[in-house]
Structures are given as C-alpha cells and as structure tokens.
Amino acid sequence: MALKLWHCAGSRSIRPLWTLEEMGLDFELEVMKFPPRFVHPGYTDINPIGTVPFFTDDAGGPDNVIQMTESAGISQYVVDRYGPTDLAVGVDEPDYGSYLNWLHRSDATLTFPQTLVLRYTILEPEATRLPKVADDYSKWFHSRLRSVEAAMADREFLCADRFTIADVAVGFALYFAEFLKLSDGFKPNTRAYYERLKARPGFQRATQYDSPSALPKVD
Length: 219
Hints:
This protein has 219 residues and is an alpha+beta fold. The protein has ten helices and four strands.
C-alpha cells in the first residue's frame, strides 16, 4: 500500500482524509484514539512528535518513504503528486496565490486559536483550565473569520470558481468550530458556505469516524 494515514476523530487529520476521499484514491487508514502519543502503543516510534495526522507514501520504495505531519501540506502533496485534479489550483491559474494563502491561513490563522480553546476548556484538568484564555482566543477566531465571510459574499467556493483543497482546509476549521461550540458566531455567508461543504459526500465519509464516543467531551 503506497498511501497510509493515521487519523484521530475530530482532528486535523480530517483534512488529508477528506482530500483522499474526494480524489477516490486507494489508501490505508489507521484510526486511533486521542491523544495517540499516550493511548496508541508504538505511535511515537513512527512519529516521534506524537501529533496527528501522520502520513506516509512508500511509492518510491523502502529507501524513499515520504513522511508528513502537516495536514494542509499532506493535502497539497496528494493533489500535486496524484493528480491532475480540480482540487488543486495550478501555478498558471489567476487564483494560485489566493489558493496558497487560504491553505496556510486555514491553520496558521484559523485553527491555531481553536487549539488554545480546546486545550483550556477540554484537555487540561479542570484545576488548570483558563477560561479567560479560551474566551480571548474564541474572539480571535471569530475576528479572523471575517476573511471567510467577505470571500463568500459573491462566490460558492474560496478560489478558482470550484471546490479545492483550500475549501477542505478552511472547511475543517469550520467543522472544528462546531465541535468547540463556536459556530454560533458564524455570519450568514460563512454558515451557508459551511452547510455546502457538509453536504459533500467526501466530507461525510471523512467524518464518519467522529461518533460522540470517539470525541473529547465538550462541557
């Protein structure tokens, strides 16, 4: 098997999983409980930093196995390596710069504050939770969503007049916001955009492992 993805419910690994599902590629999926570095024996032997996702491509042979840990980067690798696909935006297309900006914005600007909300409302023991930090970063996240709200004022998808992995990457941030109970702050354009993404069969297949029992409990 050339492609393998290690995945946890509700995590950033949904981005590459959604990409693989949209492309209809053959791949091996290993579904783990969160956090895998503590509850999945041997995981840190293959991925020393213990994060998810973890992805490998051994198509180059045993001496040239690609190993990746960054969710948007894995999605970009898959569409570039295993395309052509309309999920990618080519360097000769007018929206190429916008496409790259959304890919990087999805994690650096949107998911980053969400991880602090997750940590200080759910993952930390109750005694060390910091509601003020969680509240501040919730507001940060919602303020950054203004870029999505503006982009969706006159289009169906973020760039290139079609669904791309930019939508996959940003779509996960919206999905994560729903899990964190931040989606009440979505403005109308963002909410309608998110509903379009959730209606996609690829999204539904990628999130099929996210049963309530598989996810951390949100107070």
